[in-house]
Amino acid sequence: MTEKTLAEQLEKIDVTENLSACPIDFSKSKVANPRESTEQKVYKSNGVNSNFNQRQKFAEEQGPQFNLKFTDGTLPVTPQRYRLIWSKHCPWATRIAIAIDLLGLDQVISKGVVDPLRPAGVVGDWFFTLDPDNEDPVLHVKSLSENYLKADPNYKKRTTVPALVDIKTGKVVNNNYNTLINELTLAWRDYQAKDAPDLYPEALRSDIDALNKILYADVNAAVNEAGLARSQADYEKYYNRVFDRLDWLEQRLSQQRYLFGNQITDSDIRLYVTLSRFDLVFYQKYYVNKKKLVEYPNLWNYTKDLYSIPAFKNNTDFESMKQRFYQVDHTPQSDLVRIIPAGPDLTIWEAPNDRDRFTETNE
């Protein structure tokens, strides 16, 4: 049975798996999207032609397109067969990277990173321009769209991260940011570290499912919806939704170390990836600016507590966030002037937190 408080909160929201296109490319606000209402020059970088002026073909909401599972036996649980492709700027992809490391699955599932900066004027695809010869060393492709097209030769939608790729076939087998953590938690137990947390414990599954939907609607997706700024009324709707939920979470975390007591679950990963970007990106760039994360005592100390864990810290890359959200892509400054923040001061993330008080209380 779902926790009464969560059930009551869930009745108030409408959840859809479809995500809006990224505000950095599609917002009507020039703060979020510095290229709004502009025609860009046509660029060609490393053999890739820019397509920003034709970006509307990627503007629709889009849900995960590939959903093959380990838990139903469709995908074999085979070490060294799969590679997670992600970008360090992206909260949706970062949650899977954190889970792989937290579970100790980094020994059996490899990770490849796409460049947060696309070639000048390119939307809808991701590229391996951080690797030697601009090629992923395991998959031997230059763009993630090549793996999408191997899975579906007629694929024409946005190429998104995270993407789990079958190394043997080169095909994307799952890009569902909502279910991948559970797939790895449940189906890969034999390969998890001995001290790995149970991110989806059976006794809490209905509660975790409920809270995940709440976080998705009111935090993870709502900050993006505020950034899209379709109208003042629409912006204020999502602005209020975000801060009403942060107030609720602040209260919940005043009573326990993590979202479900003293154990880290999938829900904590989902909340963390938005909170770790909140002050740097969403507060400044998407005008979600009622309060900063650091002004919430419980939420801030909770986030620092998670950051102190290597799986969280090692997959939190503030530089990549700044690059994607502020520099946008490799368009020359002479053609598109933008300012990249000099901060944040990372020493505040290393400062002590007070969350041990809950462990001591329960011992």
From TrEMBL:
Top-level lineage group: Bacteria
Which segment of the chain is annotated as a signal peptide?
Answer: none
Q: Which residues form a coiled coil?
A: none
> Which CDD domains does the record match to this protein?
GST_C_Omega_like
Provide the protein name.
Glutathione S-transferase C-terminal domain-containing protein
Q: Where is the GST C-terminal domain?
A: 201-325
What is the source species? Agrilactobacillus yilanensis
* One Pfam short name: GST_C_2
| InterPro entries per UniProt | Glutathione-S-Trfase_C-like (IPR010987), Glutathione-S-Trfase_C_sf (IPR036282), GST_Omega-like_C (IPR047047), GST_Omega/GSH (IPR016639)
